[in-house]
Amino acid sequence: MKINKVAIVGGTHGNENTGVFLVNKLKNALPEYKGLKLKYLLANPMAIKNTRRFMDHDLNRSFGIKELQNIESSEYEFNRAKVINYELGPKGNPKYDFIIDMHTTTSNMGVTFIFSEINKINLQLACYLSEKNDSLNLYYHPPESKDVDSDQPYLNSISPFGLPLEVGPVPNGLLRHDVIEITEKTVRDTLEFITLLNNDSLPDFPDSLEIFQYIETILFPCDDDGNITAYIHKDLQDKDFCQLKQGDPIFYTVDNKTIYFENEFPMYPVFVNEAAYYYQDIAFSLSKKISISTHLT
Known about the structure:
Layout: E1 5-10, H1 17-29, E2 37-42, H2 45-49, H3 65-69, H4 76-88, E3 98-104, E4 110-115, H5 120-132, E5 137-140, E6 162-168, H6 177-198, E7 208-219, E8 230-232, E9 249-253, E10 258-260, E11 268-270, E12 282-293
Helix pairs in contact: 1-6, 5-6
């Protein structure tokens, strides 16, 4: 398969300024790349203007088939998703072969490739980017439902091939030189991968990759009125992708008590203390490390 058209997206969340900045920079500095047709898109202009994650609903949770087919919704992000799906999609038969969606996080995620879909091209890209950055993290969040017709709600799911990129830590609404620099490098490395793929010039890759697969979401302890009664323990803070074992501290309560991790099997926390998830009382997610073959057809 050859990839000819690539969409480079920023501002899916309006307070993640790195992607917004790089869309505006790269559309002038990199209007084309070795024969690839590039489209630059600011996904959520109203949220960008207001420096908010979203106006009515998380845009990056608005691309499920049911949401895209719902013509009665009046929420801004649901309607914006339909516009983007028209420009890049439609989902399932997209106009653009590959989507790069740039995000940042307040969590200590480093540079993380979040898989919307596990397939040969995405795994080859993961191998290639891992060779360019030996600290790259690979994270997969399977569909919430196991139904055959279940699909992902993310913008990147319009195309089966792409790079949902998460870089952090960086506060919301802030530009950091190092974060911009590594994000731009990863985008350029991805474009180079695509040209090598198109020319059948990819290097040999390992037979398998280790990735982190989402298992469950951990909520903050709350009282009957919905107030958070414990915060992330200092020993867990900034420990994304570090092994969490039974007996390790995870929360510290308002009455100065420690809550410990009780799972008998080691896990790996991700999105630890992510600011964007506080409105849902989400403290972090748990993942397990798995090995996956890179020789998928």
